[in-house]
Amino acid sequence: MLSIKKILVPTDGSETSLESLKYVSSFAGKFEISVYLLAVISPHHSIYDVYAQHITLAHREAEIAKLVEENIAKTAKKAKEMGLTDIKVITNVGEPYKKIIELAEEEKIDLIVIGTHGHKRLTHFLLGSVTEKVIRTAPCPVLVVRQRIHGMIENKNISTEED
Predict the structure, then answer these.
(1) What's the CA gap between 99 and 83, in Å, rounded?
(2) Does CATH place domain 17-87+105-146 in 3.40.50.620?
(3) Domain locations in the chain?
(4) What is the pLDDT of residue 32?
């Protein structure tokens, strides 16, 4: 029998990430599930941005970290509004797909529920896809959720708009 006790939801604060939570909340009503919300701060910065804006790299990193913390706090609040109670909020720094895989392995995650933005071919080729890399390297099943899909879950009347 399939046993899902731990679900990892990587989040970037986007509507697609929140759409993923709708799926997780539908599972949570049927099982006792721990939900791990993970936000990853990517260390990729443009040196040009730092010089052009006359700010230090440390200042820029602090701004990004603050923004990520605010986004994951909002996501955790939305998760609670959706009825999720056992939520673990984690912020990490590094290559996003690697940090997702590391956490999945460390915590023995049963399922990763991840959103995809569905970039067009050229953008996908140039940037790659975190979701695609997670699918290829995950130690557990991965459920990929696209934004604004319908038919599989009920609308929980949870706004994905900023409060």
Answers:
(1) 26
(2) yes
(3) 17-87+105-146
(4) 82
